[in-house]
């Protein structure tokens, strides 16, 4: 059964995730950096550097949220980055950010469903996602569509939370995720479900080798997984 934010509602995961992000969009950036103690910024920089030798000119950022990963991708000097997301609230915050930074000519944000991307096949040099794939309603379908819109020889770079395996990080992480994080999230975002959903969705996500198997199943080759910060997160790479 799919892990959803609002257990008392009958909507599918996709609709619930969109509602949740609309609810927390105004405080999302603050929460993100506070809850990860700013490490998420380092993780994004590290992930983007893995595309340096490929010099992608057209990049698609899926589940772009408020556009942080898309902005980080500008370090590669692409011609354009297109960010898609299912949450209008998140995109509205992202557009404000781009306007402030004067980046509207370089990054285009639009509504989009990761499982039904409105782009022709073989369009993008790189497809990137940070902390978005575990929110897909159908993981395989979402990854298969990412593969479809990628050019042959193109790469996907995905950052996602994973589960630390070793003592004492495993125990510390579980305690923080289950007890501390939902409390901070509740106070700052006023949406109780959002930060209960986070640990539940991470727990249910097939991380490490299990995720690489799904990438290979939909067609990606030369897949790799690099654990970050004691295994709290991982960067995944796949080529078309």
UniProtKB/TrEMBL annotation:
Recorded metabolic or biological pathway in which this protein acts: Quinol/quinone metabolism; menaquinone biosynthesis; menaquinol from 1,4-dihydroxy-2-naphthoate: step 2/2
Reaction(s) catalysed (UniProt annotation): a 2-demethylmenaquinol + S-adenosyl-L-methionine = a menaquinol + S-adenosyl-L-homocysteine + H(+)
InterPro entries per record: SAM-dependent_MTases_sf, UbiE/COQ5_MeTrFase, UbiE/COQ5_MeTrFase_CS
The keyword Lipoprotein belongs to this UniProt entry's keyword annotation: no
Pfam families in UniProt: Ubie_methyltran
Annotated PROSITE patterns: SAM_MT_UBIE, UBIE_1, UBIE_2
Binding site for S-adenosyl-L-methionine: 66, 85, 113-114, 130
Keyword entries, A-Z: Menaquinone biosynthesis, Methyltransferase, S-adenosyl-L-methionine, Transferase, Ubiquinone
Family: Belongs to the class I-like SAM-binding methyltransferase superfamily. MenG/UbiE family.
PANTHER family membership: 2-METHOXY-6-POLYPRENYL-1,4-BENZOQUINOL METHYLASE, MITOCHONDRIAL, METHYLTRANSFERASE
NCBIfam families: MenG_MenH_UbiE (TIGR01934), PRK00216.1-5 (NF001244)
Chain's role: Methyltransferase required for the conversion of demethylmenaquinol (DMKH2) to menaquinol (MKH2).
Protein name: Demethylmenaquinone methyltransferase
Species of the source: Anditalea andensis
Lineage, highest ranks first: Bacteria, Pseudomonadati, Bacteroidota, Cytophagia, Cytophagales
Gene designation: menG
């Amino acid at each position: 059964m799919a892990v959803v934010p609002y257990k008392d509602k009958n909507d599918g995961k996709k609709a619930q995730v969109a509602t949740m992000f609309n609810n927390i969009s105004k405080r999302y950036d603050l929460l993100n950096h506070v809850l990860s103690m700013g490490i998420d910024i380092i993780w994004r920089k590290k992930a983007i550097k893995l595309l340096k030798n490929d010099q992608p000119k057209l990049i698609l950022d899926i589940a772009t949220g408020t556009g942080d990963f898309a902005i980080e991708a500008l370090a590669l000097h692409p011609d354009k980055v297109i960010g898609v997301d299912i949450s209008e609230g998140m995109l509205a915050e992202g557009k404000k950010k781009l306007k402030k930074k004067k980046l509207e000519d370089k990054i285009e944000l639009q509504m989009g469903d990761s499982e039904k991307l409105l782009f022709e096949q073989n369009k993008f040099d790189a497809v990137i996602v940070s902390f978005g794939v575990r929110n897909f309603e159908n993981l395989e379908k979402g990854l298969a569509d990412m593969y479809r819109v990628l050019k042959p020889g193109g790469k996907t770079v995905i950052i996602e939370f994973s589960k630390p395996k070793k003592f004492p990080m495993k125990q510390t992480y579980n305690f923080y995720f289950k007890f501390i994080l939902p409390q901070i999230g509740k106070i700052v975002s006023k949406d109780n479900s959002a930060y209960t959903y986070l640990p539940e969705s991470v727990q249910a996500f097939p991380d490490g080798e299990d995720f690489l198997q799904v990438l290979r199943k939909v067609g990606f080759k030369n897949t790799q997984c690099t654990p970050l910060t004691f295994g709290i997160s991982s960067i995944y790479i796949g080529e078309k």
